[in-house]
Amino acid sequence: MADIRSEARSAVIRYLKGGDLFMAATVMLILVMMIVPIPPVFLDMLVALNMTFSLGVLLVTMYITEPLQFSVFPSLLLLATLFRLSLNVSATKLILLRGNAGSVIQAFGGFVVGGNYVVGLIVFLILVIIQFVVITTGAGRVAEVAARFTLDAMPGKQMSIDADLNAGMITEEEARRRRLKIQQEADFYGAMDGSSKFVRGDAIAGIIIIVINILGGIIIGIVQLGLSAGDAFQRFALLTVGGGLVNQIPALLISTATGIVVTRAASESDLGRDVTSQMLAQPRALAIAAGLLLLLGMVPGLPKAPFLILAAAAGFLAYRVTRSAREAEQAAAVPHLPAPGVAEPEDVMALLRVEPMELNFGYALIPLVDADQGGDLKERVAAVRRQIAMELGIVVPSVRIRDDIQARSNEYIVRIRGVEVDRGEVIPDAYMAMNPGTATEELDGIQTREPAFGLPAVWVSASRRAEAEMMGYTVVDPSSVIATHLSEIIKANAAELLSRQDTRNLIDNVKKTAPAVVEDLIPAQMSVGEVQRVLQNLVRERISIRDLITILEALGDAAGTYKDVDALTEYVRSRMGRSICSQYAGPDGMAVTTLEPSLEQTLMDSLDITEHGTFLAPEPAMYRALIASLAAESEHMAAAGQQPIVLTSTSLRPHLRRLVERAIPQLVVLSYSEIVPEVKVNAVGMVSLGNAS
């Protein structure tokens, strides 16, 4: 059945593929009807079409499960109102010119109200009052309140979507879909608030038109046709009332549909099923209603048959609903066992997915994540992602935050692609106090170490936070501790997190503003994978790739000359010298240590060129001495409050960095080509060959 419906729907869509032309023709027809006189037969068809269209709209509103499924309704409301007004104008012209407005209007004026124009006028006024005072006013008020509440709730809904996205509960596509739905809801209820005025204006216009038609008919009958005032009134009033009823009945249907749409709450079923299921959800109420109807049927003077019949029907429904509920409970109590030898299907593919980043925590840290308990860890993680994007220029994948029964109560674990990278412990109801070097007094508390940098720290209670700050300690809350640790882990593993798809997304973003840069490089000179490796080399040393246009332009200039990824990286670094120097230079310039020329030459001679790349392979003794000398210089510079930096040649730089990054991770290795002229370089030390040998 579903396939048949789908095929039928597709056939209709194909048939109406030119729907834009159809709508344009419809609007033009409405305008033509207001200007050009139309025959009565054609008017009969249009009147019938108006009734059919209004009834169809009403039925559609009864079968939708949420208002956005009929988001075009405000526009349809405008077109339907304009169509009814054009029918009024066309009918007015026929009534006043010919005294004949077609069979439909004649039938409504003669048969429906029994040929009594007074009765017809009263019925018309009652319909207008129902539509104007009751339905339209209520629907307009509901739409106004819904629009206001929807706009007020938008910031909270947006924050909820961002929190779910950061927690890894939804994908980027789902987040975009939800944001679009929120915007559509606000636009829909705003449009409904305004379009409800169309229906109200249509009701007022109907009253004015019928008065004008009657007065105009009397004048034409007396002046042009020579009729008496009574004959003229009877002749034209009957047709005018018939025309008014013909238009007010579809208007009433449309206004009812408006009320249904704006009062419809989101549900999984249509209006009929919701009304039936919810009305019959309380069989006790039906039983009480049956009893009251039975008592009313026993009251002397009241007709017994209607009340007794309705009492029997209500009692029967109450009995059937109660019995069905009892049978459902009994069926639910019986456990469902699979058939022998039949295994339950299992989604094995879902088990193969590995989250890019995970933050798992013990049960004691749940209050840090739960927003209802005042936790803000999700917001802190979102802030970390934004910070990394600003500092390194990469988009960190969504961090999946969830509890872990295997972790200790106060412990959190950071995993990258399913593998544990680091872990730490925090006390949720305490604060971490660290001595920045200015505090002279000892602070009592639980001794610990700050997880990101390994600094000594003390856990203190919330009541002692102010005391610790007065003593000169830096005091941070547990969420900040976790967020800082997570930030450092991301920076240290940024190269691993930068996937090929992420690289493609970054390139596509550049292509929007600088397409020539991308088209000149990819795929003519380099592949996305090669660009990814260059970017990974940069972020591995915490060089920002935010200025991706400059990076791609540099690669475009060098790709024809260099094929080695390390060589391409060094060329890019030389083009980004100003950015690199600004990262390490201070007001007084940049303090560096250098390699003694003979040591540098010896290291150059130790380069081993293979088919898999170039590697620095010094003798073991020389390696140990080199590491010891560089470590000593780094400690000396760090003690002086300076960033440990060693300056060397461009060809040696990447290999030296790769050699020392595990032993001395805080040591920055720069090349002479990266130093811009405006930066003052202060050589504060030198690693000599004698010290390294």
Can you describe this structure?
By secondary structure, the chain is of the alpha/beta class. It folds into six domains: 1-29, no CATH class; 37-276; 282-320; 355-493, Glutaredoxin (3-Layer(aba) Sandwich), CATH 3.40.30.60; 498-575, Orthogonal Bundle (Helicase, Ruva Protein, domain 3); 584-693, 3-Layer(aba) Sandwich (Rossmann fold), CATH 3.40.50. Helices cover 62% and strands 10% of the residues. It is built from 26 helices and 14 strands. The protein has helices at 2-15, 19-35, 40-63, 73-98, 103-112, 117-166, 172-223, 229-263, 271-279, 283-298, 304-333, 366-369, 377-392, 465-470, 478-492, 494-497, 500-513, 515-521, 528-540, 548-558, 565-575, 577-584, 597-605, 620-639, 653-660, 689-692, and strands at 357-361, 399-403, 411-416, 419-425, 430-434, 446-449, 456-461, 474-476, 590-595, 607-610, 613-616, 645-648, 668-671, 681-687. Strands 2-1-3-4 form a four-stranded mixed β-sheet, covered by helices on one side. It has a four-stranded antiparallel β-sheet with strand order 6-7-5-8. Helix 18 runs parallel beside helix 20 (548-558).
